[in-house]
Amino acid sequence: MKKKLIVLGICLFSILCFIGCGKPESQVAFEKEIALIKNPPKEELKNMSAEEKQIMKAIYEKMTYKINKVEENGDTAKINATFHILNFPAYIGEYMQIILPMAFTNPSEEELEKASQKFFGDLMKRKDLKYIDETVDIYMKKVDGEWDTDESKMFMSIFSGNLENFFKFN
């Protein structure tokens, strides 16, 4: 009888440990948000051209991330993550070589958009793309019982391909 109680106790303890060992709620919400950015709902894509959709897909499907640490404290959380993203600033010079000459010919907005789409479409087909690893703190807060990303400059920089850092002068 004693052996059965010990075995039953060990089994219950093991089950409770496995049930309680999930990811923090803020991390689950963060990962869902990343998944939506990488694969946006169709209604968000309906105003984009086929070329724009292909470019966005190519950018985000190659983006990866690793969560380093999650600190959840009541209704706030800080998630430290490292993103492996396309280094857009490395290609700005090439882009400007295409767009600047056009500026002197007074192009229409449609012509500029078409040239930009072609440049970024061709860029995403390259095999030698340059990537960077960027570690950031993402701040989240619980609003009406749901975790939401606190607007963060670094978070937006990550999803714009680190383009924000091109304009910094060191």
Main traits of this protein?
170 residues, alpha+beta, Nuclear Transport Factor 2, Chain: A, 4-stranded antiparallel sheet, 7 helices, 50% helix, 22% strand, elongated
Write up this protein:
By secondary structure, the protein is an alpha+beta fold. The chain has a domain at 23-91 and 129-167: Roll (Nuclear Transport Factor 2, Chain: A). It contains seven helices and four strands. It has helices at residues 2-20, 25-38, 42-45, 50-61, 92-103, 109-125, 153-159, and strands spanning 64-73, 76-86, 131-143, 146-149. The protein has a four-stranded antiparallel sheet. A hairpin with a 2-residue loop joins strand 3 (131-143) and strand 4 (146-149). The chain is elongated, with a radius of gyration of 23 Å. The N and C termini lie far apart (73 Å). Mean pLDDT is 79; it is low at 4-20.
Number of helices: 7
Q: Which fold name is given in CATH as the topology of the domain at 23-91 and 129-167?
A: Nuclear Transport Factor 2, Chain: A
Oligomer: single chain
| Poorly predicted runs | 4-20
Which structural class should the secondary elements be placed in?
alpha+beta
- Give the termini distance in whole angstroms: 73 Å
- Cα-atom Rg, whole angstroms? 23 Å
What CATH first level of the domain at 23-91 and 129-167 would be assigned?
Alpha Beta
Topology pattern, helix = H, strand = E: HHHHEEHHEEH
Helix content: 40-55%
Rough shape? elongated
User: What is the spatial order of strands in the main beta sheet?
Assistant: 1-2-3-4
For the biggest sheet, the summary is: 4 strands, antiparallel
| CATH architecture assignment of the domain at 23-91 and 129-167 | Roll
User: What is the total tally of β strands?
Assistant: 4
Strand proportion: 15-25%
